[in-house]
Structure formats: structure tokens, C-alpha cells
User: What shape does this take?
Amino acid sequence: MNRTSAPADSPAPGAWEELVTAALLGTERRTPPGSAPGREAPVTLLDAAAAETVRRRAGLRPGRAAQRPEPAARDPRPPLPAPAARRLAMLLADRSGTGGGGRRGTAPDLMELLPQWLAAADTRGFAAPPELLPALLDAARGRTDLRPAALAFAGPRAMWLARLNPDWRFALRATPGGGMALPASEDTDKIHQLWQEGLFAERVALLSAIRAREPAAARELLATTWATERAEDRLMFLDSLRTGLAAEDEPFLEQALSDRSRNVRATAAELLSALPGSALAARMAVRAGACVAVDHTGDAPTLVVEAPHECDPSMERDGVVAKAPAGRGERSWWFGQLVEATPLTTWSARLGGRTPREIVALPVADDWQAELHAAWCRAAVRQRDAEWARALLGAPAAPEAGGPGAVSLAERAKLLGTLGSAERAEWVAGFISTHGLTEAFQLLGVCAVPWAVPLGRAVVDALNIARDAGSYPWSFSGVMGLAERCLDPSEASRLDGLLAVPDEPEDASPGAGGYWAEAFQRLMTTLRLRAAMAEELGAA
Amino acid sequence: MTQQGVRWSADQVLALAPDASSRKAGSKLGAAGPWSGAGSSGEGMVWGLCKGSGSKPYQTVVDIADASGPAYKCSCPSRKFPCKHALGLLLLWAGEDGVVPPSQPPDWAGEWIEGRRQRATEKRAAGAAGSSSGSADPEAARRRAERRAERITAGATELEQRLADLLRDGLAGAEQAGYGLWEEMAARMVDAQASGLAARVRELGAIPSSGPGWPVRLLEECALLHLLDQGWLRRERLPDGLAATVRSRIGLPASADGPPVRDRWLVLAQYDTADARLTTRRIWLYGAESARTALLLSYGAAGRAPELALPVGLALDAEVSAYPGAGQLRAALGEQFTPPAPAATRPPGVTPAQAADRYGEALRDDPWLDSVPVTLDRVVPAPDGESWQLADADGDEALPLTPAARSRPGLWRLVALSGGAPVKVFGECGHRGFTPLTAWPERPGEAVSLC
Assistant: This one.
């Protein structure tokens, strides 16, 4: 606040300053105004200062208003229902986290539920309560994985806030153009202007947005400035063509194979190999086909592999990396790249009209099986070929599926990604029923949430079996945590029987029964909470 | 009184928590999972059994209808008060319909409440009887009071001497003298049974290290301390109201013997300040009929939440009695006729200029006053360099926020709530600036606590 201009009965202007000076130096050295030097001087000074202090305080006036901030843009979404707003406040209050540790008690991890709460709220299109935005932004600041959903839910007012608080700058970076709207598709001038003059992030956002809407338009836009872009930028722009990749992109990508930058060339080759009809794919098929043949001379047909002897310039141009990583043979390295880029559909013709399943079942001579199957896995993932993925995954109950077979768990998780969600869930359920939960974590991670009924039941049954086997629940804490977040809440009733503390079998780990009951209790509490959350958000 | 009418919001429940970890633990228990046999009665009782790590569930019961705030009882061994189970139970009750159904209390819960309410009634009866008959020996009480007054007079005289010495040698020396000088002086004032003087002296000690401009602040506070000393030494010559204010500022106990004012009191704000020994809770009330603002104080030993808890946004039909002293807003909560219930009322507001006037006028009755409670109407929080201010939406005047308010998370809740549009803000307005405590959006909506 401002000090007043002196009222009528005030002492001379500057009196207060003189009092302060005298007080600072001491009345021994400086005689305060209006008093005689001597023993009484300090008291006179205090008297005057007391009167002056109260006078100054009583005369305080408001200051001049500074520039007020531009009002935040209106959020057109309907407000969050009150119970859902309370729930969000509670989830955000738990933000500091429980800090790990094996035993977690029976209470749910609220913070872990925030991602699905946000996803559900975003789906229903509710506006965030303004007073919770600071906590929401703080949560998103701490956890990058939350940011897209949190910022979408937080809406325009959060962007407005982020411009006022440096702690929340990330929100402006995360949202392309600081929340600016992209031009409409008809507005070609605006689009070209933004493409020519925009910042890098804005341009990437623009290109991705157009690509999602009109793939060809995005490619044409990119072609207008391609020659003048920097290599890093070319790489990023090229990468955004991954969305909506189609045969029409081939000429552009084929030309990018001659790019100055090796990374750009490699990306172009990767994209072309995902187009089974492309010339590059055909060239690769010829090369790879020359390396693999069926040998009928033995007892049973066997695949023999003759890896390439050199990596010639034309292979390099098609994206084959000539230099093998340390510890890998050059020839098998080149071979893997050829097979990976070869359209899977060509193998059937090449290998005697066999189906993918038959081809995968063929024995492979001279230890080439791991290399060949791994390359096929990468090809199936890249070309999103469900039939080959199925063949390579094999039956979930097959014995080698559980062991360290030719196909690693990580690869299997990726292969599962090419299947529909129902088929995925079914395969993982089958896997868990046979092999238990020890290796299931990664596979469960690719299943759609909430888990399909058979999958959920398989997990609960497997947990039940693990409990009966007498181990401690924290050996399964990863799967438990997933189950809490992913199990369909309507399955909660099936857990009733598991909540009691069972009689301890002799060979069980001491106290395990109680800990299991606790873990199941937390699972059920979390499921109930999720059901309540969904209901508060007006789930159908 | 219906169950619906008195149900609280989760925020209101969490405001009862003694510390952050209880808040967290309590909110985790606020789900149906661990609870069984939970229920509530129309008379403001909530009870339930909470499954813990042991075999026997904890019995938790809360009485929310008590005049002095909720009372808790739980069979868990926690020394937190309220414990996480009580918080969880209240959250459960606040959160969802049907989870805590109205029913008959089980025996263990009913007995405790009965006992409690009976004791409360007896105490009230005893209190009424005690005050009518007066203290056992008025003569002895008078002598005690005299002796204490003599000690305070000796303390105040000594303090005057010290202040004079300080000013004679110059405040510049106080910077080097450090904290010890003031601590020792404060201890002498505690011996003199003048806790108000002791607290002021202790605060003086922190000023030399409080950044630029400290000599001004130190002189101001020394001068006001001198004024208080002089007020005490000449209290006989002061008007009654001012003399009572001086006595309360010095630290003499007083009783809330003002006439009880019955009103529908809206809880404007509740916040705690803590030092090593004591947690002090301040609750601002606004009486819709009397248009009075009253301050309730409640204390808890360090680490324990003060017992009285009145969540912001609720209103209760109750009597409050003022403590003596001119310009003193402190009051005591008397009889409560209804439990606190959500209310849509808001206090009327003023402009920033009027708020500054109010503080100025209040200094006439109590020159030691640091701030007054004020509700501002239609102000916009606006950044002002490093600081923030509340700017009049319809004028060009603005109140700066206090330095302390700038660094609190409540500032951002206020800014977010406003979004650049006018809001209504209740807070404390004084010579350091404005401290926002509660805000309301322009549109209908609940009060948002900023502290």
C-alpha cells in the first residue's frame, strides 16, 4: 500500500526519516527532532515514533492497480459433477506417493488411479474445476506420463496459468504453440504461412495434424520445403509420415533414400519396407529370398540360410546398415536387416506355398533359427501382419512359450500388439493359465484396459494358485499393481472368497496368508474405488 | 435435521487432519474396502469398524454434533488426533450415498456418545453454578491479581529501560547483538508473567535479519512495544475499553463475558500457525444477521491439532460471546443449536479503498492491530512485478498481497479460481498488505479455502 500524503496535523515532512536515522545511530550520536539531548531523548524518540507509526499505518491507502492479466479463455465444457471433483481432489492430495516398499497395506494407491481418472474425464468431456488446476499442474509436472491427459483435461485456463507461473512452463511446451489453434484445413494461406514461418514445434504439430486429416496434403506441404530443411528437422518431419502411410508416399520416400543424412535414409527405408508393394520391398524380397531356401535332401524339409557375403552400395542405399554392432557377425547382421524389410507375403510363394504357420514350424539348419525368427518377428510388427504374428507367437499353452524360446517376451509383447484386443487377451489368458504369472507382466502390459473377462479370471486364478503355493505376495507386486488398475471392477465380487486369512499350510512362508489377504483386500478396495470413480463421472 | 443436510465435503473433513501424513493416510481409508458395519445417526454420530493389520478391527466413532467441534474415539493405538481411521470414516460418510447408512448405533458406539454427552451436560451445569457463586475466595483472587500486576509493572519498567538503552546506543548495534539479546529479554518478560510482551520481544529478534528496510520495521515495533508498556503503566488513566485491550495485549487472561450473540455464523476461514510449543488455530466467523465478524482461537500442543474444527463454507446456528477490549474481535463459541451445515451464503464485500479505511479506523481502538478481517468484492488477482495484488475490477486501486501470502500455494488456487475475472476474497488486511484466506467465484460455487 502507499503512504498517504501528509495530513494537515502531521509533523514536518521527512520527520519519520529523521526518527529512523536517529534510532539507527542512537540518540547519543544524533539528537532526534523535537527533543533535547540527554537522558530523556530515547523516550521522546520512542514516543514520537509510536505516534508516527500508528499515524502512518492508519493513513495507508491502496496502491495503483497494475496491468491486469487478460482473462482466460472460456472453457465450454460442462463442469465436473461435485462428487467427481471431490474425488479428484483426493487423488491429487495423495500426490506425494507412498514411496514403494514391499508391504503396502490394504489401502489403494490413489496416485496410480489418476491416469485412468483423467482418461475417463477427458472421454466424458468435463471441464476441470479451476481451484484444482494448480495441484493438477504440479502432478503433471512431476510425472511426464500424465501430461497429455492432464493438460487435455486442464483445458485453456491451465495454459493461461502456465503463462503466469514459470514452474508450469512445461505445459506451454507440451501443448503445440502454447495452446494455439491450428488453422482450418481450407485455410491454405494460413497453413503455408505457419509452415514457412512457424517454430519447429509448431511446424511438427501442423504437419502431424494435417497428416492425420489428409495424408497427401501433408506430404505435399513437406515436399515444398524439403530441400532446405536441416537434417534433424527432416528426420522429425519424415517420421510424422508414419501416420497414414500409404503406397502414394512411395515416390517421396524413394527420393529420400538418396538423402545426405544417414538417419533420414534409414527412416525412409524403414517406412518403405512397411509398404509391401514398394519397389524397395521388392528389392529386399529378392535379396532375402536368395538367402533362404528349403532343403529337401534330409529326412524332413529344412530351411537353410545362406547369409549375404557383402553389403553392396545398393543395399546401403536401401537402408541396410553396413557396420554391425560390436559382438555381432556382419553377415548375420545384414541378413537380419534384409528379412526384416522383406514383405512377409512373399515368403509363402518362395517356400513352396506354405502358410506362415507351416513356415515357422520348419526346422532351420545351422543355428539360424533365432536370427531368422527374430527378423520375422520384427517384420510382422513393422508390417502389422496378424497372421504371421499368430504363427510366430504359437499356441499360448505350448511348453516353449513359457521358456526362453526363440521369441523373447519383449518380442511377444510387440507381436501381441498386432492382434485385436480380444485375441490378445485370450492369448495372454491362455499363457497365464499354463505358465503362471512370473513372466506375464510384460504381456499384461499390452492388453486393453479393463481386462477382458477371461483374462481377468486367469490372473485372479493364478494369484490364487500363487497364494496356495505359499509364496509372499510381493513376489507378484507388479502383477498385483496392474490388476488393481486394469481388472474390470465388476469382477470384484469374485474376490470375496480370497479376502479371508487362510489356515497356513506347513510349507508356507510364515505370515504369507495374512499378507495375501491384505493384498487381495487392497485389490478389491481399489476395484470398488474405480467403480465409484466411473460412476461419479457418469459412466453409462 | 436430515443426514443430507449436515454431510460435509471431503475438503472439510480433511481440514480436521492434524498433519499432512494423517491427511494422506485418512484419504486412503476413505473407501469402502476396509470398513464394515458403518452407520450414522440423525444426531450427528458416525461409526464403523475398520480392518487394520491386526485380527480385530478398530472401532471408530465420531460425534460431529458437539458444540466444540467433532469428537473422536478409536480403538487404534495411534496418538494422532483425530487418527486416520476417524478421518477415513468421515471421508467415507462425506463421499458416497448409502455407504454409511442411517441406522441404530451399536452398543460400543452408543455408550461412548452417551457418556460424553452426559459429561458435557454436567460440566455445563457445573460451570453455570461455578460462575454464579464466584470463586471460592474473592479476597485471595484479588491479592493474586495484584501480585501479578506488580510483577508485570516491574517487567514493563525494565523493558522500558532496555528500549531506552537500545535507542540511546542505536539500532545499528542490534544487528550485531543477534538473537540472544532478545531471547534473554523475552525470558525476563515470561518471568514477569507478561506473555504478550514476551512474544513481541521475541519477534523483535527476527527483524534485523528480515531483509532490506529492517531499521524501519524495528523502530516501528520498538515504538509500539513502548506504547504498550506506557499503556500498561498508565492503565488507570485509560478509558475502560482501551485498558482492557492493553491488558489482553500484555497477556493477561480474560474471559469471554460479553453478551452471547445468537446468529447463523458462517465459517469464513480456518488456519493454523505453529511454533515449537503450540499450534494456534484461528477461525473467522461471520454472523449473517448481526453482520459481525468474530475470531475463535483454539490451541493444541505441538503435533496435535487443536480440538475445535469448523470447516470453511459451513454455517452453524450458535451463540458466541466476545472477549473484553475495544476493537477486539476474539470471541468464544457458546451453545450450538445446530451442527455445522453447508451454506450458500457469502459475506458482503467492500472495495480495496474501503478495506484500507477499515484497518485505519480499527487502529483507533487498538493501535497494536496488525490487520483486520475484510471481504473484498469484485477484485482481480494481478501480477505486479515480483509480487501480486488484488485489483478493484471496477476501479484503479489495488491492495498488495503480504510477502507471506505470495509464497503460499493458496495464491495459485486464487489465481486459478479467478482466471482473470473478478472474485470475492475474504482475508486479513493490514499494514503489511492483504492475506487472502478464502475466495468465491462470481458465479455460484463453493467457497475455496486458500490456506
About this structure: The mean pLDDT of chain A is 82.
